[in-house]
Structure formats: C-alpha cells, structure tokens
Amino acid sequence: MEADIKEVFASIQGEGPYLGYKQLFIRFCGCNLKCNYCDTDFDTAHAAKYSVKGLLKLVDLNLDCHSVSLTGGEPLLSSAFLKEFLPECKLPVYLETNGTMYRQLGDIIDYITYVSADIKLPSCTGLKPLWDLHDKFFKIASKKELFAKMVFNNSITDDEIIKACSLCKKYDVELILQPEMRDNKPSVDSKLMENVLDKALVNYPKVRLIPQVHKFINVQ
What we know:
Elements: E1 2-12, E2 22-28, E3 48-51, H1 52-60, E4 67-71, H2 79-85, E5 93-97, H3 102-108, E6 114-118, H4 122-125, H5 131-141, E7 145-152, H6 158-171, E8 174-179, E9 181-182, E10 185-186, H7 190-203, E11 207-209, H8 213-216
Parallel strand pairs: 2-4, 4-5, 5-6, 6-7, 7-8, 8-11
Antiparallel strand pairs: 1-2, 1-3, 9-10
Helix pairs in contact: 1-2, 2-3, 3-5, 5-6, 6-7
C-alpha cells in the first residue's frame, strides 16, 4: 500500500500545547474541506508516493523527535494506509486533523497518542456549520490526549465562542484560540485577541491563546 505525501521533514511544532517540541512532520495530500484561510500546499502535484516500509525507515532516522505529526491536508483521508503504518511506528503519534472524519478516526484511534482537532468556525472558514461532526469526532478522540484548536478572525461571533466552549467542556479538553495569520502576522489586533479570550474564559476555564509561533521564528 502507498500514500501520496507532499513532504516529510523534521522541525519544531509551532502550535498548541506542544509548542517547541521537535517533531517529524508527515504531510499527507488531499483534504475533505476547503477553508478560506488555508495556506497549506497539500495537493498531489509534485507529491511522492511512499510505501509503509519506506515511511517507517524515515521514522527510524528521526528517533530524536518527540513524536510523529500526521498533518496535511487531512491525514485521515489516508486511514487505510495509516492502519498499516501506525502499528509499526516507533515514535508517539500526534494527529493534526480538521476534526470531522470520525469514522476514519475510529479505525486508528488505538495507535494515536495525541489528537490536535480543529473546531471550524463558519465565520472564518466560509464553510457550513460542522458542530455535529466535531461532536462525534471529539467523542472518539477524547479516549486519547485531545486538545482543540480554533482559528478565528474579526468575523468571529459570540455564539461561535459559546458553542466551541460548550463542546470542549463536554469532553473536558483544552481549547486553543489561534488568530488567523496573513503574511506571517496575526490578522487581528491584540485588543480583539484579548476580547475573544476573555469571552471564552467566561464560559470555560481551559482556554489559551497561542498564535502560530513557527511563522514568527521562520521555521517550516
């Protein structure tokens, strides 16, 4: 079995509570969503096909990393490949996902250590509301170490903040607020960041604001 993979590289995790850890990033091609703010190149153009055995060899060369970050695109589109790859992976597995493909997650959850799941806000993504899918996803993901990541911009609504906090409270997971980035800078000013954080904290105490730090320090 093979998977279309855009790139494999070791770098520093720049988002969420594992900020600053060295990880081996495996970027899978394809995504089931199309968010307005997405700036990641994950199409199959110039991608490489990796076998399970070939990818495992790269993991073995990077055992100094804290974990393997499965990212994309949406890595759960390659769940059949992951079912063969993950049982043999020698590093802890850190799944970065849009938090919608709950059935595919159920197929591989036993091999995952950390889950970084997005909460997709309609105001920021331009997508329809995905609350029901996120709920089903979080129910499965909460069996492991789960945190939620929520990208927001100036269009965020109070209702979205309340719904996100309610979802995270239901599964007792930390909510990471992440300002949308444009040209490696936050698209919102510090006053709005503080305002959104304060509104979230009124509803749920496990909330932090963490920008994409890897863009500030100019690492991949």
